[in-house]
Design goal:
The chain is an alpha/beta fold. It is 38% helix and 16% strand.
Length: 421
Amino acid sequence: MSAVAKSAPAVIVGTPPFDLARIRRDFPILDLTVNGRPLAYLDNAASAQMPRPVIDRLIQYETREHANIHRAVHYLSETATAAYEGARGKVRRFLNAREEREVIYTRGATEAINLVMHGYGRKFLTEGDEIIVSQLEHHSNIVPWQMLCGEKGCKLRVIPCDERGVLDLDAYGKLFNGHTRLVAITHVSNALGTINPVKDMIATAHAHGVPVLVDGAQAAPHLAVDVQDLDCDFYCFSAHKLCGPTGMGALYGKAGLLEKMQPFQGGGDMILSVTFEKTVYNVIPHKFEAGTPHIAGAVGLGATMDYLAAIGMDNIAAWEHALLSYATQQFETLDGVRIIGTAPEKAAVLSFEVKGVHPHDVGTMLNEEGVAVRTGHHCAQPVMQRFRVPATARASFAFYNTMAEVDQLVAGIRRVQQMFT
């Protein structure tokens, strides 16, 4: 097929609501060249890059503050404990939770969802109960609930989506019945970028007396999140998608629910007393944080919260929306390229296929042009099945990306088409 470009639509390129050049200088990895070309890092939905202030804070902790926490009165332990717990307060403010004790540290969104499955699902759900998820979920918000269904004899009910990647809210409302016990939905689709109307969906569930877990792994990096305004019962995110360290994340839960749940793991620091006859569990959040935690990860997460707060989540959302709009317009100039997921409300994700070219070949050739995108099913195989594709290439933007990098992506796709026609 000929790769003749369509005429370009009129494009108004916006100005970032912050000093983009200065922001980019905070990210040393963006100075890399790949195959002799400047790196255009467009795989932020998988992991965002880490800015110098977060890197420096981690180095400071590891070289001048490192010790175990909660268990000693010496200087280093008290310093590390203060940093660890101080970061919890920053997460509380980031999510606008009511209390710091409603913030549980986890290894990421995946562990947070598994914590709720174990602590809430295994304790309160029984045979015949039903759990509602959506067709847009990441495997991390499907597999744990399938495990619970297999163990307890529960049933998974699925909210369908249309050809744009928009959930059918009428169908959602009809899924509720006397057996519905939990709703677990993504805030933003990792594969398509669809922003789900979770506040309305939570209200619907609560009208039926059903609690809601929101997977915020793809929303927290891009949108201002207010868990009190959403009124969600649980909300989780991963630090590495927020320009923070890997192996770190958080679960928000309403205090009343967390207090009723059983611990996910047993061990040190999650207890008040232990005898061979009985263990009395600690208060929340400590009840869910057994053993020596990822202290450096928490410190790094706290620094990430500071960094993002200084830029402003509304400013981040505005610039990423401008990037997405520009990229979408530029993709419309390409023959033989199909965007998968065209919801009217999207985060900065473009999932696409190039006619006649396997997504892995697209990714490999874009890498030759210095462009980093993700290829595959994105841990969202039900989404791929819905759109009748085995995989897609996915460009995902962050606030440090530029319009020039969008142009580099589009030029790379044209190069791919030339090689395969």
